[in-house]
From TrEMBL:
Keyword Cell cycle: no
Organism expressing this protein natively: Novosphingobium mangrovi (ex Huang et al. 2023)
Organism taxonomic ancestry: Bacteria, Pseudomonadati, Pseudomonadota, Alphaproteobacteria, Sphingomonadales
Lipid/polyisoprenoid-binding YceI-like domain segment(s): 36-200
PANTHER family linked: PROTEIN YCEI (PTHR34406)
Keywords: Signal
InterPro entries, sorted: Lipid/polyisoprenoid-bd_YceI, TTHA0802/YceI-like_sf
UniProt keyword annotation of Kinase present: no
Signal peptide coordinates: 1-22
Tree of life domain: Bacteria
Pfam families recorded: YceI
Name of the protein: YceI family protein
Length: 204
């Protein structure tokens, strides 16, 4: 009975503290702290989705991204974003496929180890949304890409005490335009990108 009582108290304590963590996150863009941010690689993920032979959708991820964000909530148009993604980190549910995707037949990670997106213009489209125009360099080729970004929230991370911003973004690219043409169009040329990103504020 005593053990159950202690466990019950622990559960109540966790439940009671949960709202405190939730309340820290502020979804209002006006509350965002202006400044320079660094991408939190541990809590950022780039996902791609293709149509697989018209049978199903198939996706993979690129963990390990790094980058910077300069942001002033009073002047969204002045925002600057620069993000790099290690190509060799490509990950699916299949180790053999991961190795194939990193090979010269696909992304050729040995020759082109990094994908990079550098913003050229940011246009506010709503209270919490913006179109981020930029240049994507992949497989040695650079093309303009538009990412549709949504601000999720800002808060002090309760674990490391760092002020952090969260965003989601989506975009579409044609992989053949970057020279990644294996099995196209049986494996769709059009590739959807979905990004969840966290940025940590740097010291002034």
């Amino acid at each position: 009975m005593k053990r159950f009582y202690v466990s019950a108290l622990t559960a109540v304590s966790i439940i009671a503290s949960a709202p405190l963590f939730a309340q820290q996150a502020d979804t209002s863009p006006a509350s965002v702290q202006a400044g320079d941010y660094a991408l939190d690689s541990s809590h950022t993920l780039v996902r791609f989705t293709v149509d697989h032979f018209g049978i199903s959708e198939f996706f993979g991820t690129f963990p390990g991204a790094s980058g910077t964000l300069s942001l002033d909530p009073k002047n969204i148009a002045s925002a600057k974003l620069d993000v790099s993604v290690p190509v060799a980190s490509v990950s699916t549910t299949n180790k053999t496929l991961d190795e194939e995707l990193a090979s010269a037949d696909w992304f050729d990670a040995a020759t082109y180890p990094t994908m990079r997106f550098v913003s050229t213009k940011v246009v506010k489209t709503g209270d919490r949304t913006a179109d981020v125009f930029g240049n994507l360099t992949m497989h040695g080729v650079t093309h303009p890409v538009v990412l549709k970004a949504t601000f999720k929230a800002g808060a002090v991370n309760p674990m490391n005490k760092t002020y952090t911003l969260g965003f989601n973004a989506t975009g579409v690219v044609k992989r053949t335009a970057f020279g990644v043409s294996k099995y196209a169009p049986l494996v769709s040329d059009e590739t959807t990108i979905a990004i969840t990103a966290a940025f940590e504020k740097q010291a002034d």
